[in-house]
Design a protein that fits this description.
There is one protein chain. The protein has 14 helices and twelve strands. The chain is of the alpha/beta class. It folds into two domains: about 240 residues, Type I PLP-dependent aspartate aminotransferase-like (Major domain) (Aspartate Aminotransferase, domain 2, 3-Layer(aba) Sandwich), CATH 3.40.640.10; about 130 residues, Aspartate Aminotransferase, domain 1, CATH 3.90.1150. The strands form two sheets. It has a seven-stranded mixed beta sheet, sandwiched between helices. A five-stranded mixed beta sheet has the order 8-9-12-11-10. The longest helix is centred in the last third of the chain and has 20 residues. It is globular.
Length: about 375
């Protein structure tokens, strides 16, 4: 079965009770038990819900995993995956990750004795050098946020396995349509399902997927114990959004390439960060480990004022946080996604005041380009 067909036909598309082509919203908090000595599959919706069950099985199928867990947000998913670690553990993480992930690692988990070293993962030797005797996990983003740096995932996994590390990756930017990290040896895949999986800017959700039984047991313990689960209505919205994943990713990527190529030609653009460009340092690696490049790119303007003028003048681009929706979104990392990162660290990484991140939607690419044109 081709992947595009698998999105729609993965064994979780029909209501088993009625044959309905849309899984019902089981808006129930608790379930009657017919035999107290043989409890049913569902007891309390924090622990399990039929709508969430269908979503989680779908997510597992999309990532070629065996176990998936739906959370109330992308950060709930990131935090819950990291919460399987123990006091005293050390994490090696990509240095230019989403600001929320940076914040939770540096300000929350640090309080519980879990430390993090941030490295440039475009060079595998940086990972090797950062590993210490108490290192237990490797946390990746590829492409990274917001500079679209690429990690050799299989290479990073090989390094991690030498040291018996758990490997985790935030796969939000690529979505499972373009990249399935479990097939490259990664242990845990994380999504802000709010983004491309949902695709319509109408639901906040997160997902964690694995093939490992022991890791799945630990993640479920956190999901059930902390209770940051996705409600049935939002599960249904996410199931509905996933049905159009293929069409959206294909069309949005086509436009992203067109926008990136146009930006490259503008005199007032100093840098364009998009792995679909042949001169991107990670272009070859992406081609070897994924089937596409995604629909997110960033670019730098020649002046800060020009960047602000663009944000004031655009009419088709929504100036907003988030990404992955059907509408095109223009974000300002220093004030939005990476505001939690200290200014000195942002500047060291190259997240400057003239950097703009674009999430290309389904509008006509020519119209999007015309809207950006301030030359």
């Amino acid at each position: 079965m081709k992947y595009g067909t698998k999105i729609l036909h993965n064994g979780n598309e029909l209501d088993p009770h009625t044959g309905a082509l849309s899984i019902p919203v089981y808006q129930a908090s608790t379930f009657h038990q017919h035999d107290i000595d043989n409890l049913g599959k569902y007891g309390y919706s924090r622990s399990g819900n039929p709508t969430r069950d269908a979503l989680e099985k779908t997510l597992a199928a999309l990532e070629n995993g065996t176990h998936a867990f739906a959370f109330s947000s992308g950060m709930a998913a990131v935090s819950s995956a990291l919460a399987i670690l123990e006091q005293g553990d050390h994490i090696v993480a990509a240095e230019d990750i989403y600001g929320g992930s940076y914040r939770i690692l540096t300000e929350f988990f640090r309080k519980f004795g879990i430390s993090t070293t941030f490295v440039d993962m475009t060079r595998l030797e940086n990972i090797e050098r950062a590993i210490g005797p108490n290192t237990r996990a490797l946390f990746m983003e590829s492409p990274s946020n917001p500079l679209l740096k690429i990690t050799d995932i299989a290479g990073a996994v090989e390094v991690a396995r030498k040291h018996a590390l758990i490997t985790m990756i935030d796969n939000t930017f690529m979505s499972p349509y373009f990249l399935q990290p479990l097939d490259l040896g990664v242990d845990i895949v994380i999504h802000s399902a709010t983004k491309f999986l949902g695709g319509h800017s109408d639901v906040i959700a997160g997902a964690v997927i694995t093939r490992d039984e022991d890791l799945a047991s630990k993640i479920y313990f956190v999901q059930n114990g902390f209770g940051a689960v996705l409600g049935p209505q939002d599960c249904w919205l996410l199931l509905r959004g996933i049905k159009t994943l293929r069409a959206r990713m294909v069309m949005q990527q086509e436009s992203a390439i067109e926008v990136a190529l146009w930006l490259k030609k503008q005199s007032w653009v100093t840098n364009v960060y998009y792995p679909g460009l042949e001169d991107h340092p990670g272009h070859g690696i992406v081609k070897s480990q994924a089937t596409g490049f995604g629909a997110v790119l960033s670019f730098e303007t020649d002046t800060v004022q020009r960047a602000k003028d663009i944000m004031k003048r655009v009419r088709l681009w929504s100036v907003a946080v988030s990404l992955g929706g059907v509408e095109s979104i223009l974000s300002y990392p220093v004030k939005m996604s990476h505001a939690a990162v200290p200014q000195a660290e942002r500047e060291r990484l190259g997240i400057t005041e003239n950097l703009i991140r674009l999430s290309v939607g389904l509008e006509d690419a020519g119209d999007l380009i015309e809207d950006l044109n301030v030359g």
